[in-house]
Amino acid sequence: MSSRRQFLRTSAAGLFGAALVSRAQAAALPEAPMMDKPDMAPPLLPPNGPPYNPVATLNGWTLPWRMKDGWKEFHLVAEPVRRQFAPGMTAHLWGYNGQSPGPTIECVEGDKVRIFVTNKLPEHTTIHWHGILLPNGMDGVGGLTQPQIPTGKTFVYEFQMKKSGTFMYHPHADEMVQMAMGMMGFLVVHPRDPKFMRVDRDFVFLINAYDIDPGSATPRVNTMTDFNLWSWNSRVFPGIDHLVARKGDRVRIRIGNLTMTNHPIHLHGYDFEVTGTDGGWVPKSARWPEVTTDVAVGQMRAIEFTANEPGDWAFHCHKSHHTMNAMGHGVPTMIGVDHRGVAQKIMRLVPDYMVMGERGMADMGEMEMPLPDNTLPMMTGAGPFGPIEMGGMFSVVKVREGLARNDYKDPGWYRHPAGTVSYPWTGEAPRAERRTPVAEAGRALRVRKPGGRGGRH
User: Fold this and answer.
1) pLDDT tens profile 161-174
2) φ, ψ for residue 71 (rounded to 5)?
3) Tens-digit pLDDT profile for residues 195-210
4) Among 126, 13, 123, 6, which residue's Cα sits nearest to residue 68?
5) Domain 4-306: assigned CATH number
6) Is the pLDDT of residue 358 over 70?
7) Cα separation of 101 and 233, whole Å?
8) What is the DSSP letter of 449?
9) Element housing 444 (H / E)
């Protein structure tokens, strides 16, 4: 086994947890796989070490590792990347191994983990292992627990996983810029006992947000509140993967929030339990049923349910402006305003001008509106019954009978059994009862005395 000193550039660097790799050691670095496709890769079954049920990362993948002298060795490369948010828009971000977010890291409770981090950014960086219990010098806070990783250099992080759970990684160096540019990733530590908290399907995704001007491709890194792209794993609807499960599966969804606001995550058609937080697993005695769980800034939540109701069930953030794309905060409300006369005058100058907003915003989901290049419509997506009128943090949990155990392919839209879809009423319209304010006031005065008859007072 190579000694720890061989991994340190100098004995002084050993005072810091993240060690600079020498040229000799660089030749022995583990491979750094890259990924440039935004599709969800199949779960990575462990080729060695303790067994576990791997996770499925929405629009992402799991980073392979190698075993060396009892250590699981991973290699992350921090670098500029291009990320497609949905067909029609690609952003210039920073990430790891070709993507933002970076690949999911999976290991097992008790594993000794060694992670090489190569910096190909135009500035220094570090990695903080959010929620992991580890030696102070491995915590990844630049200037406090380690020197910054300079451009072109590789550092090493080494620690043992003390507990299982759901965690994240992200920089603690020029953090506002680097996280605003998309630098983050998921870290899952599976229980040593493969039967503990076992589920059939285990999905993960990070909540992130960006401010990218329409027609541009690079985020505005100084934005603090007015983000216009709310995303899951740097994808927005209709680009977010569906969560496919077979009927009867026990399903877990792990969610991490690295935005600047909280997100009430809501699942249709089911109630679920919060079974895990960033602090660990929640005992059964402490759980209660929910249909919405609020994930605050810097938090992680694991929710679980049994997929016993087939269908296409909406899954989204319940802040309505988080399910829209490139929304402008300065757009006036035109509901109820008759601006046909003004529109006619404008159309003489601009023939393609369309009146929008006087009846609401649903027209935007139905019409093909001209947009700047590399810009997504605010509301988009088509379902089996017409426009879905969503964007941002929205996906679909698709539960089907007869799927194979590891089948995550999109099964298409749900075929509803006859008589189970809402339908239009074709009978006589109900008569509206009109009430005057005077009649309403008189009705309110007719009250019943305690123990006596009703009457006027």
Assistant:
1) 999 999 999 999 99
2) -110, 140
3) 999 999 999 999 999 9
4) 6
5) 2.60.40.420
6) no
7) 6
8) P
9) helix 437-445
